[in-house]
Write a structure and sequence with these properties.
- The structure is a homotetramer.
- The first copy, chain A, contains 8 helices and 14 strands.
- Chain A is of the alpha/beta class.
- Chain A has 2 domains: 78 residues, 2-Layer Sandwich (Alpha-Beta Plaits), CATH 3.30.70; 195 residues, Rossmann fold.
- In chain A, the strands form 3 sheets. In chain A, strands 5, 6, 7, 8, 9, 10, 11 and 12 form an 8-stranded mixed sheet that branches.
- In chain A, helix 3 packs parallel to helix 8.
- The two termini of chain A are 20 Å apart.
- Chains in contact: A-B, A-C, A-D, B-C, B-D, C-D.
- At the A-B interface, strand 2, strand 12 and strand 14 of A face strand 2, strand 12 and strand 14 of B.
- Strand 2 of chain A pairs antiparallel with strand 2 of chain D.
Chain lengths: 281, 281, 281, 281
């Protein structure tokens, strides 16, 4: 638990690794994992270390590190793994992605993660929420209306989660909601984006006769299904599969991709730069 | 070598398998492989058998089988594997897909397949063609002109190939060419269609930040990159990959997918129905 | 629901498909899916059809079909999909595979499947069993003793399940148990068999430095980890992964492979012949 | 071309990254890629940088770096990418792996790599060698004799290659040969090791009824098929595949895995420690 990581990016030049690693060494920390690369003139790194007693919390670290940010015109993000992170979940009628995440949290697959609430425009998930003792909020939605978002934002404000995960939540979020929510939103889309944007990807995939179906987990931005992609995967389908069978098989990919994307986000292995992600391994 | 297969489709109803298998049994043939399924009211099957001495050639078989087609309002295609099939190849500057196919033909990965000619708008492939003793035709192309197609159609007419494979041929074919060519054309597209239609898919994939790149082999129809898909596959890319590195990795997928698609076509495991393929295993 | 399938194998010869399909057609049934192939002189087929009103139950069908079995010296298995099938589950401390199956049953991913009981040598699964209202039996085990099997066989006898699934049950079954249990047992082994037989596959995989880890679902026979393989899959690991991280990633493969293997078994797409499976698609 | 990389390992402690990156920065070099992790108390890193004018060659760099090795009791390996590397190839009758590598070298998939010779105990590869203007040496082998190795060692001594690749060379190398050869030997084994060690893996895979077949590329050590694994991959097979069909499909995996393993080796992304590899991405 006594571990921490930082992500950092800045315009590339010589000496950045030396400067940061000296800073950590001067604080008697031992780097246990470091990844760095440069891309189009930008330097990206993620560094994980042990023994963080020098700083009481992330804010103190950030204060100490500010001079490095200034020197290189860079951005830093730091996380202390001893701190519990929370991820509120949204879901609609289909529960496979939600059940996968709740099972993983329960079985300890994610370290130090809690689910503070589940919000849904269906009552399908209520029983599951109760089983896990997670507060469940039913916020029904109406076509062409965003009136329900006010209540949702109130709930979110109450919990201040670190992240929100859309575990097959089938209502579009307004730009206002996205701007006000105050934390990153991670969605699972049921196709291999950018193919088959929108609400009926399996029908479109069937129509086009593709041989693999996929799923895409991405950060949500106001433009529908256009946010930075975190993780994708595919599964092979065979001739003769009905759309229903494609959906069933697709559900297995969706939940796997969503679970992996959340793991990456929870471990702070994802950095967003110009609507693309840098994903560290 | 003494084997044959038929593909058949018709409106679905009871008794079709019984009728066809009786016909084959009455001719003393032994079915060694049969796949059948129904989809949206259409019956599809592929049947492979041994011992075809009853008919001198495919045309004779087709004549005998005509009554079954009439009875079920169906379409049949038959192939005797003892007959050599030919596949003319088109290529531009990049040779990886071409080299893969030529190597596979040479090493006997495809049964009874010959490459009668290579046509190219670049001289890059000439040395390779000479090594394999395959006639090479250089047909230079000009922007916004289809004048070169006349010469190409003459060459094709001379050889009457069973198939044409576009092994990364980077010039669009005119609708006239496609209609006159007289055999199926199989293309390898350097993306996971329908994502990234057109000429610069890796650049588009990089821009969008996808986590898997792919390749798609499809039959060519006049609408660009819209033909029935035969085979697709993907490969994972990592953060920090340049477009060049994506292209190199993509080339490996392209050649693999193209080689597999041709294998399916050469073995008559692909049937086209309403711009989608039925692919038998 | 009004569907059925048969699996059949016999020494290969001409006319078998014709004979069976005539039989079905004579009973006014419509074949919706058929797969057949011959391998080493043995004919294997699976046929699925609609409309089964001719027979009250599977036993009646089998009686009618007996003459075909006699004629070809073959074995037939038939299943009417309207009949509910039951699969008892065994588990030890680790719950990921169990949770996956229970979720899939709950969400309707398997058709007409019920879980009649959960047996465990740990109390870990009890809460989950209660949530799903599945009778839970705690049968503690002792090292080098098979005394607990008597109680387990009593429980099984009470429910007469169609199948038993070992969802990461970490106690070896005695040959007596396997012989007396009266139904197929499907296990999930946490390695890519035949690599790493036994109890510590991830440790062995780490030691050997393999680049992919896997999971194998197989029917249980008295010889440990030697039964007919139903399904396998792998996942890539990276340098620097600890054994713990390999186990976490492996758990995702295990549950996926187990879920797929059970789906194949429940749909009667698996046929065992000479300690190998024929798996229909 | 003006790039270089180093691989380094030593007992882990704080300050190593700082020390090395300061050294590089003091030499005015810009790190463009860095990967580091610790495993069981050992620190491993690979660092790639631009602008290497400070040193005339790798030996000079190594001399300058010696103090760091001493300080941390570490081992360093350095490569300047401007230097051409050579890889001699061995092959027997089957040419798919050889053809793949030669094509990749020809098409520029590997940077700055040359194939100085091909040695074979069959004449099958001679035509291919001639096409690429690569000296071909025919060294016939006899059962239970290693007499041919003397001649092979002479040829190798003449060229002093950086690496030797066994592109499906089906004769076991003696321990003497391996000890005297003077460079790493990379083999492609036609199974997913440690499954199916030895000469008939596809037959064994068929017999065992596995659902995936694989290939493994590894460094050669005197113990047969026991060397450090560099890369592995698998492909799905279907019921009804003959051993011949498995071999054909396996060949595609073999050549792909071998090509990838060589790429990793040529780019110095592989480090051997205690009979396991650390593979950097």
């Amino acid at each position: 638990m006594n571990k921490a990581c930082l992500k950092f990016y800045c315009p590339d030049r010589a000496g950045i690794v030396a400067r940061i690693s000296e800073f950590l060494f001067a604080n008697k920390l031992n780097i246990i994992n470091l990844e760095q690369h440069s891309e189009n003139g930008i330097f990206f790194t993620r560094i994980k270390w042990e023994d963080i007693e020098n700083w009481k919390n992330e804010a103190e670290f950030q204060k100490d590190f500010a001079s490095i940010c200034d020197e290189f015109q860079g951005q830093v993000f730091v996380h202390f793994f001893a701190r519990v992170q929370t991820c509120g979940l949204f879901v609609s009628r289909e529960l496979h992605a939600l059940a996968e995440i709740l099972t993983k949290v329960e079985l300890g697959d994610y370290e130090n993660i809690q689910i503070p609430f589940i919000i849904s425009n269906s009552r399908n998930a209520e029983k599951l929420a109760n089983y896990y003792n997670i507060p469940f909020y039913y916020t029904p939605t109406k076509k062409d209306s965003f009136a329900h978002e006010e209540k949702q934002l109130e709930i979110i404000a109450k919990y201040s989660p670190d992240f929100i995960g859309l575990a097959r939540y089938m209502k579009i979020l307004s730009a206002d909601f996205i701007n006000q929510v105050g934390c990153p939103i991670i969605n699972i889309h049921h196709s291999f984006l950018p193919s088959f944007v929108g609400a009926r990807p399996y029908e479109m995939a069937y129509e086009r006769g593709v041989k693999l179906i996929g799923a895409t987990s991405h950060f949500v931005i106001p433009e529908l299904d256009q946010g930075p992609i975190i993780e994708q995967d595919v599964a092979r389908i065979r001739s003769g599969y009905s759309i229903l069978k494609m959906k069933k098989q697709g559900a297995d990919i969706e939940k796997k991709v969503f679970a992996r994307a959340l793991a990456k986000v929870f471990e702070h292995k994802v950095l967003v730069y110009e609507n693309r992600t840098v994903v560290f391994e």
